[in-house]
Amino acid sequence: MQGLDFTVVAPYWDLLVIGAWWTTVLTVSAGALSFFGGILFAVIVLYAPVIVAYPVRAFMWVFMGTPLLLQLFLIYFGLVQIGIDIPALAAGIVGLGLHFAVYNADIIRAGIVAVDVGQTEGARSIGFGKWQTLRHVVIPQAIRNTAPPIGGNLIALLKESSIVSVIGIAELVHSAQLAISETFRPFEFYITAAALYYILNLVLEAALRLFERHVEASR
Amino acid sequence: MDFSLMQRVFPFFVEAALVTIEITVMALILGLAAAALAAAAKMSRSSILRTIGTLYVSLFRGTPCLIQLFVLYFGGPQIGINLEPFAAGVIGLGLNIGAYMAESIRGALVAVDRGQTEAARTIGFSRLQTLRKVVLPQAARLMIRPLGVNTVALLKGSALVSTISVVELTYTAQRFIGSTYKPFEIFGVAALLYMIMVYAVARVVDLLDKRFAIV
After folding, report:
1. CB–CB contact A80 B183 (8 Å)
2. For residues A214 and B59, what is the distance between their CA atoms, to the nearest angstrom?
3. Per residue in B74-92, pLDDT tens?
4. Number of structural domains chain A divides into
5. What ipTM does this complex have?
């Protein structure tokens, strides 16, 4: 048992900050993918012909029933088996993005169904096409009404992004592991990484609160 | 697809799935206990207890479960805590899900109409009696679904303990990839077993929710 000494973190501070930066990049890019992917899946499940909608449903069902870690392994190692060699960073973004797109799709689908049918009727009667109605009238309202749970998913995504360290993406956990391999001080570095995640989490929560207030005001 | 390989590894995977179930159940028990304590602390009259409860929930919900497991398992020995992988996995997962479950429990307690408490207190029930005989029976129904969602998340999250070398389903899958180089088949079998477990739990939660529905 060795005593704790947090000064060992100082020389590696830059490394950890770079890791935190990549965690942010991962969260933002996978978050964007999960948002737009969620809308796409929701629209497909609701409106696409069965031959498209059923495979997407099956895909959502599988992704909701299995761990993210397994999905990342499947995307990263599995695609290589069938000859698709994608870089770890891309695999991480796609894996995280798809995983949360499925959860967002479930929320957005419910949001679309909940938009008053009068909105569609109104838009159609003033000459909007089906697609225009969906694009300009229904989906914006569905997104506005489901903003809090979608934001909750983004917060979950930030924390779950730590998992992509297992396929070797150089984000925050990976930075900590690198420093630990040189210093043999896991406690100090993992606690520091945890603190950085906590701060990122607070910033994201504050940003989402501001955004929600903005959305509320636009009602 | 190499189906004979899938058939051959299947028995090993079922055994590994049992470890996943075992670790999930033990973490669930620990999590529920931690959650009940934390929810009680957060709603208590003592400001010290309230602070402790709030800190626990906020810290464990505000940081990744993976990091919590790493602090406990790799960092633990530095502060004199030496745990086997399995024990570290149960404690790490349990404390993590406990923080989420505390919010589910508190949410359900808060959702019971205030008038119920006021009425019970007016007719002479003590605080504890009010909680036990009036509020909890009503809140328990409201807890089923959120706690069920937490349990499903715990089951899926249990894959994380493969990173601290607990030999459960995901760890076993990884080991078989190393020896067979057939990720699709291997992960397919593992995914199938996870889905069976996840949707079985979801079904039980649905049934409980219906069984105890008020209307």
Report:
1. yes
2. 28
3. 999 999 999 999 999 999 9
4. 1
5. 0.91
